[in-house]
Amino acid sequence: MAGFVAQRQRERAVTTIIRIPQLTDSQFTQFSALVYEKTGIYLKPGKKELLNARLGKRLRACGLSSFKDYYALVMRDASGEELINLINSVSTNFTSFFREQPHFDFLAATVLPGLIKEAAAVPREINIWSAACSSGEEPYTIAMVLEEYLAAHSCPGWSYRVLATDISTKVLDMAQQGVYPEDRLAKVPPSVLKKYFQKGVRNAAGYVKVNNALRQRITFKRFNLMDEFPWRESIDIIFCRNVMIYFNSETQQELVNKFFGSLMSGGYLFIGHSESISRLKHHFSQVAATSYRK
């Protein structure tokens, strides 16, 4: 934990003042078209200044002085690493533990009891996918809810796995480390915090780390939602929250169709409270606010 904290402190301490050029309208169109092609994220014209600032950091990192040169670098980099850096730069990764609490309440009160009851005397592993896990708060929250539920109820033989994916390698690295400032866990109940987190000491004071037992329940993996899904009717629960707001309606439609095909019969899809699929064609049944069942 100490090494992770020291790295973050060094990153905050480095402040280099370099003049960032202004992104032209044509360059914005060029970059936004590339981002849309590779990720499905639609950058509205109003995002020009945001993109200017974020790509300016990549110019500094690459030692370049123009967006033209940076675009050329991205396109000629056969390794694809700079394209990943570009995607990391434009991805929005705000999240928190127990964000949009009603989803987790519904998971514990309705979804889990229903799945276990329907399986009758055939216990099995519950498969959950956090489809845009960002820095890990969502999948760790899901795992804590599952741990608490299975411990509080008689569910012999039942277990679970959480697949946590994101397109950004930067946030996936943070998620796999499982180290967070204490103030990021304000919504975590004290008893749960004590059970699943280790408090940092000395150089790591002010930070906590997810314990190994919980981390081992989660598989973190880079995955682009625009790619073909390798799962076919094998997932029980999908969380894809506050992601589709960055996609246009065509991409949203494609994504919802792929989620439907990946879920088992009776599986659940959770989307963000600011999102809606009511204008899309789908076969889900709405069972609660922004909660759907196949």
Please identify, by name, the CATH architecture of the largest domain. 3-Layer(aba) Sandwich
- CATH topology of the largest domain, by name, is Rossmann fold
- Number of structural units classed as domains: 2
Largest sheet: 7 strands, mixed
**How much is the average pLDDT?**
90
Poorly predicted ranges (pLDDT <50, ≥5 residues)?
A: none
Considering the chains and any ligands shown, give keywords for the structure:
3-stranded antiparallel sheet, Rossmann fold, single chain, alpha/beta, 2 domains, 294 residues, globular, 7-stranded mixed sheet, Chemotaxis Receptor Methyltransferase Cher, domain 1
In words, what does this structure look like?
With 294 residues, this protein is α/β, with parallel strands linked by helices. It has two domains: 2-90, Chemotaxis receptor methyltransferase CheR, N-terminal domain (Chemotaxis Receptor Methyltransferase Cher, domain 1), CATH 1.10.155.10; 101-293, Vaccinia Virus protein VP39 (Rossmann fold), CATH 3.40.50. The chain contains eleven helices and ten strands. The strands form two sheets. The chain has a seven-stranded mixed beta sheet. 31% of the residues are buried. The mean pLDDT is 90.
